[in-house]
Structures are given as structure tokens and as C-alpha cells.
């Protein structure tokens, strides 16, 4: 084998091994979500979560999601790369008393769809926001 070709093959193998080593060293999150259930706030009340999507079903990244209770402080969250948001409001606030809305420049909220039925005592309140690009 030509010495120049041998050097090219050796360099290619080293580059591949270096790339694999770098990839193995990075943390990988199943589903791409950075939510850590083990570190979730204990006793914080129901978890409010859902997705912010456009009218075609694509994720709307970095949308601001406002959880507005009838009484008390609102909670401002942000959707991630999957359009997912998660957060809590005080356990003293009833889930039926929380309004969920989404805002992002260049978009208009068209609807919200709460999947958890009204009056439910569930600890997980799922609400989807649909937004239209302006």
C-alpha cells in the first residue's frame, strides 16, 4: 500500500474514533426532553404540561406559556425544542381555576385544548396550545 494512502486511512480511522468518543461522552436524553422527574418539586401541586404547536402540528419553540390562576401569582414557562412545557402552581389552587395561554412573536394563539377533564383530581394537567403563524 502506498505510504500516503496508509496515512490517509490512519487519519480517517482516528477521526472516526475521536468522533465516536466525543458522542459517547455527551449525555443523551430519551425523547430530547430535559425534564428530571426525580428532581421535581415535592408538594408543589399538580404538574401542568403540554405542547405548543402550530396549525400544521409542528412544535413552536420558545413560546411563552402563562399559567394564570384566578387568585395568586401567575407562572410563566417556556416551551422547549419539542414544544413541550412543564410547571407547577401552588397546591392550594384548583386546576379548574387555572387559565393556560401561549404567546410568541409572529404567532397568534388559535385555541387551547385541555385533555384533563374539568373537575378531575389528577396530579397531571395536560393542555395543548395551537398557534397560527402571522
Record keyword descriptors for this entry.
134 residues, alpha+beta, Immunoglobulin-like, 4-stranded mixed sheet, 3-stranded antiparallel sheet, 17% helix, 35% strand
Could you describe the 3D structure shown?
It is built from one helix and seven strands. It is of the alpha+beta class. It has a domain at 44-133: Immunoglobulin-like (Sandwich), CATH 2.60.40. The strands form two sheets. Strands 4-1-7-6 form a four-stranded mixed beta sheet, with no helix packed on it. The chain has a three-stranded antiparallel beta sheet with strand order 3-2-5, with no helix packed on it. The longest helix is centred in the N-terminal third of the chain and has 23 residues, at 3-25. The mean pLDDT is 82.
Largest sheet: 4 strands, mixed
The number of helices is: 1
Fraction in beta strands: 35-45%
N-to-C CA distance:
61 Å
As laid out across the biggest beta sheet, the strand order is 4-1-7-6
**How much is the average pLDDT?**
82
Amino acid at each position: 500500500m502506498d505510504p500516503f494512502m496508509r496515512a490517509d486511512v490512519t487519519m480517517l480511522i482516528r477521526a472516526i474514533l475521536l468522533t465516536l468518543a466525543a458522542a459517547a461522552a455527551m449525555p443523551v436524553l430519551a425523547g430530547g426532553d430535559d425534564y428530571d422527574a426525580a428532581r421535581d418539586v415535592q408538594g408543589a401541586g399538580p404538574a401542568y404540561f403540554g405542547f405548543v404547536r402550530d396549525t400544521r402540528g409542528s412544535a413552536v419553540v420558545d413560546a411563552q406559556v402563562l399559567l394564570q390562576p384566578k387568585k395568586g401569582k401567575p407562572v410563566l414557562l417556556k416551551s422547549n425544542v419539542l414544544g413541550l412545557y412543564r410547571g407547577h402552581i401552588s397546591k392550594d389552587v384548583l386546576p379548574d381555576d387555572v387559565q393556560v395561554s401561549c404567546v410568541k412573536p409572529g404567532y397568534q394563539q388559535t385555541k387551547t385544548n385541555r385533555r384533563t377533564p374539568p373537575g378531575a383530581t389528577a396530579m397531571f394537567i395536560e393542555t395543548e396550545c395551537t398557534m397560527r403563524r402571522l
